[in-house]
């Protein structure tokens, strides 16, 4: 083993070799498996389900590739290699750094089988049956990645203008641009529209949202509210937001919230909405009111398909306040929390009746205030409603 | 706009009832006629002057009705039968109340007659007739035509093209049939697009669930959920709304092709669908693939092949039984189109049930490192005993890589070249986009019989341009499944419509398409054939107009840019194209280099 390591270390002094194997060394403590991984990596990169055909052992008859010299060191290493002596146990493919392996760059045209030590390896035991070296494009020489030649920019900006005239082309060209990526959409969703059965008077709740816009920028509106039948709504609000995509799954949203009940307030809104890992739909926003009060709300829900149409949706919500707001019966900290689960059936995707249960708690000073008002700070709602969108 | 000039003969061949706009049949005058006025199947038009009329009506398939667009009164529209070496004038009249067009998919012709509004011409306005004046054809084989306006293609505006060879037909079959595969939906194409944009895999009713029986462990499911991806995302639009059609007929409508035992039958299979890849097989039979995208290839014997949207394959079968089913199963296995080879009228073979839907694999995520290779335990990784077949040459059908993907970065944007715009439109970057042209297609890696791959294709005739490409370019296919955004290099067409991909005239370029998404995309370049760099000898690399780039992988072609003008270059999945996966390729003018010989020119 030791002489082999020494030989490979010598070979590693060749810059090309070191570069090729940079991502393969598992911790760098044992370079011996590196050559094997290199070999394995190349074979894997040779394509899949290669047609039947034989791989002739021994040096392949291949054109001299430009990189032969770079691999000479590898060749030397292989010639001294005793496959049986290699420590394959140390190969941990599970921890291979795939990003730096970059199999995609493997160019068969650059491969020099003569230098890959095939001649020295035990071909008898290797199952090359599925591989067909004969179909590899050995003739494909490396092609440089360069900018287009100057001639590529010659000619008119728009070829069709010369035939049909720029005026005739204008409308269709504009339509083409709009129709291929430039369209806007309108969406309206009633996520929760429900009847809430509970002790001390049944109530109702709505939670709707929607947007109009393109892929990256939208006008987003939200409204939610709840109340007890026969009484004034307890809470009702509407938000108008500019929603801007900041990543594949997240939008940042900024705008205005208007409270429609109680002491009417207007809030500036800044939040994020999107899809978290494990497919949690999250909506988190901070609200700064015209009275200077800072509050926040975080909602999350996730969908669990029982069947293709029967869907269980756990949901949670936490409301926070940065200060006491006596008029709104809010204390500093977490003011309320909700945990619920809804089971819906998608008759069609756009229309799904549901049943569910939701537990809500007033906390801290909010709970104290509720008790003073003769209300239970902990309420269980049994809900029935419909989720819809269009 | 050219003047209407239609010969009597052309119209008779078209099977229409009169000449000129005044004598158009009712369906063609734009009337919304109920009662299944649109006929399934197609007539044939041929000759040097051909007339086509675009109209609308109601289409009924297996009892489901919807509005459709028909050409010469049928869906598909007529077979346009042409002859290599002959010119043709095709007068297209638009009786719709919106613009329309016809693109001749796969034909080499002057760009101004390629039929893409906004790129090659202004389109055909309502009530107008446009004459496509196509010079002597430089090719033969199986092609097709379709609208390139709006989403009319989804609504029925398509048909087959057959160009007879000027010289000997290398296949010379006893019988010659066209099978054009497509979809019917009662939904308006705009409605489908709207649902795709807003409905979170609206059409997929084959998702994982608590009660489903996909071979996924809890760990697998958590891995996919953690990545915010779904392993069942095989097709965006499925059999939940589509009825799959063969020559306009649903699978229960009895499309039948006659044969006599001992005959050699050529089936010219065209995927004229908007969104569907099909797995084609004739259970119990082997057959030879003899042409791909209209270009002759060395015969390859297979039992199944996958055809991407807009591709065509000619196959040669020698049926021996009383009847054989031709099965075109959608890639996600949510439905199928069926036709019957029948030795006597009404003869029927058993139609197999749909197979279990496939799942995406770690290879489709761009992790092509051989997930079945587990060398970490018990010394099983002895190089000498290694089974290369298990090293990811054949992709496992389940996604149980066994590795912890949690720590992996599925969106390492540092792997992207600088000309890719990183933004919300990219939800994944393939870690290791290996060449997957040897892949049979999603779901066909584990079948036991022989399945065609691009690496099996070898051009029958030698190619005429054997130059080594002077440069290589890389184009990334990018997308965001959740937002339903699709683009090239992270840039939707709407943002790069003034920045085409430019080639010098007669420049030879190697183009590598890298798929940074988990969907397979059929990428089509108008007006050219490119050669797949598939391992075939350089002078016999197969020529294609459309190439599938498998998820997380790459495909490479050599292009001789010898057709001057502006050409569309796009994903042929209709709704991907309309989301922005579209670009213009500009080939500089031929100028004073008429000496350069082009494909098919002597």
3D architecture notes:
The complex is a heterodimer of chains A (390) and B (602). Chain A is an alpha+beta fold. Chain A is 19% helix and 36% strand. In chain A, helix 1 packs antiparallel against helix 4. Mean pLDDT of chain A is 73; it is low at 1-139. Chain B is mostly beta strands and 602 residues long. Helices cover 6% and strands 32% of the residues of chain B. Chain B is built from five helices and 33 strands. In chain B, the strands form seven sheets. In chain B, strands 13-12-15-20-17-18 form a six-stranded mixed sheet, with no helix packed on it. The radius of gyration of chain B is 24 Å and the shape is globular. Classes of the chains: A alpha+beta (390), B mainly beta (602). The interface between A and B is large, with 102 and 127 residues.
Low-confidence stretches of chain B: 1-23, 29-36, 370-406
Oligomeric form of this entry? Answer: heterodimer
Which strand order does the major sheet of chain A show?
A: 1-2-3-4-5-6-7-8-10-11-12-13
N- to C-terminal distance of chain B:
31 Å
Poorly predicted runs of chain A are 1-139
The coarse silhouette of chain A is elongated
Largest sheet of chain A: 12 strands, antiparallel, barrel
Structural class of chain A: alpha+beta
Offer a few descriptive terms:
heterodimer, A: about 400 residues, alpha+beta, 8 helices, about 20% helix, elongated, disordered N terminus, B: about 600 residues, mainly beta, 6-stranded mixed β-sheet, 33 strands
Describe the secondary structure blueprint for this structure.
The complex is a heterodimer of chains A (about 400) and B (about 600).
Chain A: H1 2-12, H2 15-20, H3 32-44, H4 68-79, H5 98-101, H6 159-164, H7 166-179, E1 185-197, E2 203-213, E3 217-228, E4 233-245, E5 250-259, E6 266-276, E7 280-289, E8 294-301, E9 304-305, E10 310-321, E11 333-345, E12 351-362, H8 364-372, E13 378-389
Antiparallel strand pairs in A: 1-2, 1-13, 2-3, 3-4, 4-5, 5-6, 6-7, 7-8, 8-10, 9-10, 10-11, 11-12, 12-13
Helix pairs in contact in A: 1-4
Chain B: H1 8-14, E1 39-40, E2 44-46, E3 49-61, E4 64-71, E5 74-75, E6 79-83, E7 88-94, E8 103-105, E9 129-134, E10 141-146, E11 158-164, E12 175-184, H2 189-198, H3 218-227, E13 243-246, E14 256-258, E15 265-271, E16 278-281, E17 287-292, E18 295-302, E19 304-307, E20 312-317, E21 323-330, E22 336-342, E23 471-480, E24 485-488, H4 493-496, E25 501-503, E26 507-515, E27 521-525, E28 530-532, E29 543-544, E30 546-549, E31 554-561, E32 565-571, H5 574-579, E33 582-587
Parallel strand pairs in B: 1-5, 2-6, 3-7, 6-11, 12-15, 14-22, 23-26, 25-33
Antiparallel strand pairs in B: 3-4, 7-9, 8-10, 10-11, 12-13, 15-20, 16-19, 16-21, 17-18, 17-20, 21-22, 23-24, 26-31, 27-30, 27-32, 28-29, 28-31, 32-33
